[in-house]
Amino acid sequence: MYNPSVGDGDSSAFRRVQQEQSYGSEFELVKEECIGQVQKRMGSRLRRLVERNKGVKLSDGKGLEGAGRLTQQRIDAMQTFYGLAIRRNQGNLEGMVKETKTISRHYTDPPDHSFCPDGADSWCKYKVDRACGTDTYKEIEKPFPPAVA
């Protein structure tokens, strides 16, 4: 057993080791999640959400997937941004919450960049342009309608 224990999202093995107290009751076990696994789970859950809601109409009369909605490409991008937000904010829960929440806001109309990370190394091209004085950012062609957002 290594401490901290790096998990893959399945906490049953860690829980079992904790309960057995194989290392004694005075030894505190610490579990850390693998960021890649957390990132992968987020994308998998969005894909599962789309799959489970095939044929379901939202308040605008359209489904969850399709142009301007949760496409596979958009889910891939959101999953990547999610992993970046976690990696950039290790040890900073407030920053992590702020950056992960901004991902969906980034796809709304109009896009909300107020919570995007600042600076030239931001994943948000709008914020990169502001930091570098460049003009490369392009608005998302088909942002999420309110029914999806």
From TrEMBL:
Organism: Lingula anatina (Brachiopod)
Protein name according to UniProt: Uncharacterized protein LOC106152218
Pfam families recorded: Mutator
InterPro entries reported in the protein's UniProt record: Mutator_transp_dom
Domain Mutator-like transposase: 2-124
